[in-house]
């Protein structure tokens, strides 16, 4: 359905972004992976995407908090694969602390990675999408883009900001063939979330399994983690013609978290 469309997925060397990139590749997209990690593992991932899905896959190591590097990433994608049709803003980091103790450098890093980066990439791709009168921008927000949790000031602020940026982008592009929507996942068992669970287990002297269930029971009525595959399938749908009049929505995939 999306054969030979070109998709840039930030933060796609692991977790949610990796799952979304794979589902877009399965739908026929050529892929630009972006993120940090071990060079050998990323190269193995890139080769696996090409081999399994029969698409072209490139890796851009660009720091998406740097607007110059973002512009370079998009320009190289254009030169190597063709114009960028789909942008998935997924890159994210987390840090937890009470507001009074929140280190300023951590605040700046979370806002830069989780919010400013999405602005930089959106700004970089919109002109070409407008020129072709087709494009899809999908911002990965969070349940924390709709509700809050204590000790997550920067993350919650950034994800609420992503929802706002999504709405503005959708309004500005409303009379074009470009759409912008946000996906708001609940708990997904990503490396980032697993690290939070392990930290809880260590501090409480409990097991990772016990803390996984405790985490889900606090927020997610389904009692099950959302999967990256499920989020990827939703991203594919948002790229379809059926979703062409879905504009500016924040779509919850959270096991009932924000229904409470």
Distance between the termini: 36 Å
Tell me the total number of β-strands: 7
Strand content: 5-15%
Let me know the CATH homologous superfamily of the largest domain.
Answer: NAD(P)-binding Rossmann-like Domain
> SSE string, helix = H, strand = E?
EHEHEHEHEHEHHHE
Mean pLDDT: 97
Q: Please tell me what the overall shape is.
A: globular
Specify the CATH class of the largest domain. Alpha Beta
The secondary-structure class comes to alpha/beta
| Biggest sheet statistics | 7 strands, parallel
Number of spatially distinct domains? 2
Low-confidence stretches: none
By DSSP (H or I, 4+ residues per run), the number of helices equals 8
CATH architecture of the largest domain: 3-Layer(aba) Sandwich
Assembly context of the chains: single chain
Cα-based radius of gyration, to the nearest Å: 18 Å
Strand line-up in the sheet with most strands: 3-2-1-4-5-6-7
CATH topology of the largest domain: Rossmann fold
Q: Provide the helix percentage.
A: 40-55%
Protein described:
With 260 residues, this protein is of the alpha/beta class. The protein has 2 domains: 6-186 and 226-252, 3-Layer(aba) Sandwich (Rossmann fold), CATH 3.40.50.720; 188-225, no CATH class. Helices cover 49% and strands 13% of the residues. It contains 8 helices and 7 strands, in the order βαβαβαβαβαβαααβ. The chain has helices spanning 15-26, 39-53, 67-81, 104-132, 153-172, 191-204, 208-219, 228-238; strands at residues 6-9, 30-34, 57-60, 86-89, 135-140, 178-185, 250-253. It starts with 5 loop residues before the first strand and ends in a 7-residue tail after the last strand. The mean pLDDT is 97.
